[in-house]
Write a structure and sequence with these properties.
The chain is an all-alpha fold. It contains 4 helices and no strands. Helix 2 packs antiparallel against helix 3. The mean pLDDT is 80.
């Protein structure tokens, strides 16, 4: 971090925070592509969305495996536990 970043209060993101953000973005993309696939009017457009969704699923799997390997993602945790952990980490970043 540079002197300007320190003076401006900028915090550097660590790998865990970046991976969580990427996972959240991947979830939004997959959800959006699923909805677009269901609503697509033409078969060609539906096929395009399905292919993109499949690619996002594969990338999401790689990302979740990476996070699990580092102990940053536990699929056995409840949604509430994961949300509370995200809130705790967000407070740390903001402080």
């Amino acid at each position: 971090m540079s002197i300007l970043d320190t003076a401006a209060g900028v915090k550097t993101l660590n790998d865990r925070e970046i991976a969580r953000g990427m996972r959240e973005d991947a979830n939004v993309c997959a959800t959006t592509l699923c909805m677009a696939t269901l609503e697509a009017y033409t078969p060609a457009l539906r096929s395009l969305f399905e292919n993109q969704m499949t690619r996002h699923f594969q990338e999401h799997k790689v990302l979740c495996n990476y996070m699990h390997k580092h102990g940053w993602h536990d699929p056995k945790k409840s949604q509430m536990d994961m949300a509370m952990e995200d809130l705790r980490l967000a407070k740390q970043v903001c402080d």
